Amino acid sequence: MHAYLDFERPIAELEGKIVELRQLAAQDPNMDISDEVGRLEAKVSQLTIETYARLTPWQKSLVARHPGRPHFSDYVSHLIDEFTPLAGDRLFGEDRAILAGMGRFRGRAVAIIGHEKGNDTKTRLKHNFGMAMPEGYRKAQRLFDLADRFGLPVISLVDTSGAYPGVSAEERGQAEAIARSTQACLEIGVPFVSVIIGEGGSGGALAIATANRVYMLEHSVYSVISPEGCASILWRNSDKAQEAAAAMKTTAQDLLELKVIDGIVPEPLGGAHRAPDETIRNVGETVARALSELNALSRDELKKQRRDKYLSMGRNLLA
Question: Most buried in the list 167, 213, 235, 262, measured by CB within 10 Å?
């Protein structure tokens, strides 16, 4: 059974009753629980629909951070054949918060990159909770250069609260690495599709997501800063995170309306963590469609489309 968020407590209670009934039935084969279980399951389904139809921006942030959501490694294992990882930045070392490599997506050679948060204490520490150091963004530049040289489409999967903000990262040129990775995104002449699969935090996300097409999972978030960080700056109180999340317009629905993203990938009822395989299939279909549409563009057209896309955002907001 997956971990429940605070606002899912009524759902958790009903599903707990179903589990109890099944345990009782297992002990007594003569007990008929089919009608009661059916009634409870229908109630759970209806309650889940109602709950997820009225999620607040803060609640969407919590869903986006759910530890049970599929991570980069899950997408690679399901969608990419013959994956060959790329390691190191040829300057300092290897960063495990950003994973990258080459493989085949539906038979076509591609370059793929994304943040990996890990799914338990050991792997979260190994991947630094998806917060990359400068060497992660320099590894990204290596991948973009290779993809451009060999004509490989690029797929990026974003899931980070932001680049690592520690002293060691700043000493090694974090801001410069992020800026150059973003520049590399803009300069490649191959189709480039990005999907925000969880959190898209600040420049740490944008550095590998300045793509021709950017999509977000239905309950993911994309923002310049976390709600807690925004609340700490504006109100000097991180407890105001809910108000900050609402004001920042971080949800997929808000960002589609603002023309920051190109589309929303639907999640299964109750969020991606309830049906990871279905979520991964939905992302795969979206990426395949986007790459098919971008195939018709030349190198110069791809670069121009990408640059025009980002230059127009400020104009759209000012209009």
Answer: 213
